[in-house]
Amino acid sequence: MSSGLAIESDGLVKQFGETTAVDGIDLRVPSGSVYGVLGPNGAGKTTTIRMLSTLLRPDAGTARVFGHDVVRETETVRGLVSLTGQFASVDEGLTGHQNLVLLSRLLGYPRAAAKKRASDLLEAFDLAEAGGRLAKTYSGGMRRRLDIAASVLSAPKLIFLDEPTTGLDPRSRNQVWDTVRAMVARGTSVLLTTQYLEEADQLADRIAVIDHGRVIAEGSPAELKASVGAGAVQIRLLDAAQREQAERVLSGALGVPVRPASDPTRLSASASDPSRVGEALTALAAAGIGIAAFTLGQPSLDEVFLTLTGRPAENTTVTEEDAA
Amino acid sequence: MSTVTTTTPGPALTGTNLDTVLLAVDRPQRPGAVSTSLTLAWRAALKMKNSAVEQLFDVLMMPVVFLLIFTYLFGGAFAGSVDNYLQFFLPGVLVMAAVMQTLATGHTVSVDIAKGIFDRFRTMPFWQPASLVGTMLADLGRYLVTLVLTAGLGLLLGFRPGAGVSGMVLAILVILAFSFAFAWIFTTLGLITKSPDSIQTQSMLLMAVVFCSNIFVDSATMPAWIRAIVDINPISHLSTAVRGLLHGTVTAGQLGLVGLSTGLLLAIFAPLTMFLYNKKKSG
Predict the structure, then answer these.
(1) ipTM exceeds 0.90
(2) pLDDT at residue B14 tops 70
(3) What b/e sequence results for B82-96 when a residue is b if at least 16 CB atoms lie within 10 Å of its CB, and e otherwise?
(4) What is the mean pLDDT of residues B262-266?
(5) What distance in Å separates residue B150's CA from the closest CA in chain A?
(6) How many CB atoms lie within 10 A of CB B156?
(7) How far is A187 from chain B (nearest CA, A)?
(8) Residue A174 or B245, more confident
(9) Of the residues A220, A241, A265, which one is the last residue of a structural domain?
């Protein structure tokens, strides 16, 4: 299960009219792992996974899923994968239980086995109580979990999750993460797209960063973050008048330039050497500068983009969402 | 590490249930076309059940209004007496009731396939036309309700079919078969047109086609040029055959014509619909 490649793509291209949504994507996704595809809106993430899951036909390039070509062996690939789209692909006019029974029946399970499978999954995804309610009454998190449960029904070897936690509250997001981990622990490979570096960091064994339809960086989360820098210090002052003084103290202690933010009480600096962050905090206190908030965070997606592309991540809206 | 760490983890997943599902070894056989279509018909029927009252209103409103207006307002003028006209018109109104419903079928399908669940259906390895056929099969149930209730009202008002119960049953079956085939026209149109307004235009067009038939009056009373159009309208063939079945005067030729147009409609519009459906997928 852990040997071999779940996905192997070479030079995938997809154009929508004049727009090139995907411009030559090469991926090597090891089987039995979580692979994160990170990028802003319109980078080509959705289009890429729609091609890999046989929903879209590539204009150029090839892709194989467990060695099967996505264009020539569509049926075989469909038997191996399952896609959870960005917009919940459950039937809102049916109950949670009916949704899962319907899909089990379509997979060929006899009536009784389909009902059992549906109940087991509702239980496993903490939806047992809501099982009898119409899916349109579900919260965003419940809907997403039902959606993932529906993807799991066929016991696929590879699951595509398109921005599985976008728009979810932290609690629901954690539940989705738990679900992903539980699936991988049972040998399923997962490819997920996300706009959040933190999500990719938490879940993915390897990450590809996509921008304008191309892979601009690839590696383990640690490698990727190392290439960007350790992280950033964010400080909010009690008194905006002390900002200039704080800027001097901080840049002295950290040894890097400090950036004033648009909010007059905020400052941020990159923290290439985390051990100096403590000293900086002490120095600020010694200078009598009151601090309302102090955070040491990993680089945001914006910072990753800034470093990799030399410009901030922009949310270009491409027609891929319309085509969906 | 991370800027914000949430402290409320979700409830742990029930591992054993997930194991039963994920580690199941008994992968089932791929289901056949018939069982897949029936499963998807079950889905459509469940959704219909959620709006049963509106559905009933939709299927009954038009035939009842037409039956009452034409029989009592125009019947005397058209056929000498209300009762005479009812004997002629009821078979026609049955045809009209079912045929007009096919428009709603096309609309339902085109709205439905824009929904997220169809993304999932499309990645599943089953006989793809079932996604549409299922809804269309379930709609046969709606046509049946329209037909039975309209026929019942006709009987109350004094309609007397010469061929009795068996004629009525056969007539309904013929109408259902034709309507199933006819509905593919509107699934095709539903996939071509995007705007929901186009349903208005389609409805007007269908109404024109229904009026240019012998549903309301015998084509023998019309000028030659319009009679030529009316006589090749498949809806005329259907209402002639249904009249024949109900009154016991049907000929093999009349049924043959209906069979022919049913077959032709299916052969042209079902593959066309599927072509457009598949094209939409790879758009």
Answers:
(1) no
(2) no
(3) beebbbbbbbbbbbb
(4) 97
(5) 29
(6) 8
(7) 9
(8) B245
(9) A220
Average pLDDT, chain A: 84
- With a threshold of 0.90, does the pTM exceed it? no
In chain A, which residues have their Cβ closer than 8 Å to the Cβ of B20? 117, 120
**Cβ pair A108:B30 closer than 8 A:** yes
Residue B201, pLDDT score:
87
**Strand (E) or helix (H) holding B24:** none
In chain B, residues 122-151 whose CB comes closer than 8 Å to chain A:
122-126
Residues of A in contact with B126 (CB under 8 A): 106-107
Strands (E), chain A: 5-16, 19-30, 34-38, 60-65, 68-69, 81-84, 158-162, 189-194, 206-211, 214-219, 232-237, 259-260, 266-270, 291-297
Please check whether residue A237 is in contact with residue A243, taking contact to mean a CB–CB distance below 8 angstroms.
yes
Whether residues A241 and A215 fall in one domain: no
Mark yes or no for CB contact A124/B9 under 8 Å. no
Contact status of B116 with chain A (Cβ, < 8 Å) = yes
Q: The domain spanning residue A202 has which CATH number?
A: 3.40.50.300
The size of chain B, in residues, is 283
Spatial CA neighbour of B99 closest among B201, B46, B174, B166: B174
Contact B36 A87 (CB under 8 A): no
Whether residue A198 sits in one domain with residue A250: no
Domains contained in chain A, number: 2
Average pLDDT (A77-105) is 89
Domain end point (choices A220, A252, A279)? A220
Residues A14 and A111 in one domain: yes
In order of A22, A56, A155, A210, B2, the CA distances from A301 in angstroms are: 20, 28, 33, 11, 13
Q: Which of B6, B17, B21, B29 to mutate to test the interface with A (most CBs of A within 10 A)?
A: B21
pLDDT at A62 over 50: yes
Residue A202 lies in a domain: yes
Per-residue pLDDT at B11 exceeds 60:
no
Instruction: Report pLDDT for B2.
Output: 42
Does residue A8 or residue A187 have the better pLDDT? A8
- Cβ–Cβ of B14/A123 closer than 8 Å? yes
Same domain, A287 and A141: no
Same domain assignment for residues A35 and A180: yes
Contact check, Cβ <8 Å, A123/B6: no
Q: Are strands A189-194 and A158-162 parallel, antiparallel or unpaired?
A: parallel
A150 lies within 8 A of chain B by CB: yes
Least confident of A181-185, A307-311, B72-76: A307-311
Pair (A51, A194) in one structural domain: yes
CA distance A145 to A201: 21
Whether A64 and A89 share a structural domain: yes
Cβ contacts (< 8 Å) between A85 and chain B: which residues?
A: 116, 119-120
Domain membership of residue A216 (yes or no) is yes
More confident call, A304 vs B64 = B64
Residue with the larger pLDDT of the pair A187 and B67: B67
Range of the domain at A109: 5-220
**Is A314 a residue whose pLDDT tops 60?**
no
Most confident listed range (A120-134, A227-241, A290-304): A120-134
